[in-house]
């Protein structure tokens, strides 16, 4: 079995750098389109807070769909499972993450799960607060506690770009509103959704987010149980079945721990009781997942024995 070290990760980065030429940096969203296809970085943190990194670790990128886990977390804490899963389902969806057709296909017109765009927008409509600003501040406060530092902010330029280029998401929100399947104020839900997509992270922050889940929903500093253990189980199961969209099956088989991706090319993973992992590689495949990042996670899983389905 391989021992985790900076040198090991450096070798992995060298070996997997050729994968950065596969896939494409998303061009439709200003700011994301400016990311460099050749960048590739990784951070792994264990429960003793030893941090191992390699590659481009100082790159700042927007959280994008990795934020869908954060919004789900807060909605579950605010309302509990029954109410949340009256609003969205928990089934995997075989289509692209921003598809609208599934809202028509489902008998009750609900989004399939909280990890696809429609589901995350519906989840945003549930989060408690008297205004979008207050809801967003609650999310930031929670996220800062989860990460154990204050050094995150919303990128105004990304937020403006999300709004400007957000017609597909608007269509999803207004469609759900029109059927009445999700009781939401479309503009408010979208505004919160755009904001949380625009939170700037570095790869270490992705690893810290994963570490929080790996640590049973407890903060690393102080061990505060911020997330109910039942909600942790639910979120990890949904990440496993839907976090990588219609590649979640392949991830379950080849990586074997809960992960969530975003179109900036970031992926975070939680290896229960062991590691939080963050990878960034802005070139993504047609399903919306970082090509290099996915390959690296597969390799790490094999080398370090991280697949939770593998017998001891
Ligand atoms: N901001 C993007 C959207 O709403 C996020 C999608 C993603 O990261 N998969 O479509």
UniProtKB/TrEMBL annotation:
It comes from the Bacteria. Its EC number is 3.5.1.2. One of its GO terms (biological process) is glutamate biosynthetic process. Keywords: Acetylation, Hydrolase. One of its GO terms (molecular function) is glutaminase activity. The keyword Hydrolase applies. Gene3D superfamilies: DD-peptidase/beta-lactamase superfamily. InterPro entries: Beta-lactam/transpept-like (IPR012338), Glutaminase (IPR015868). Pfam families: Glutaminase. PANTHER family: GLUTAMINASE (PTHR12544:SF29). This is Glutaminase. The lineage of its organism: Bacteria, Bacillati, Bacillota, Bacilli, Bacillales. The gene is glsA.
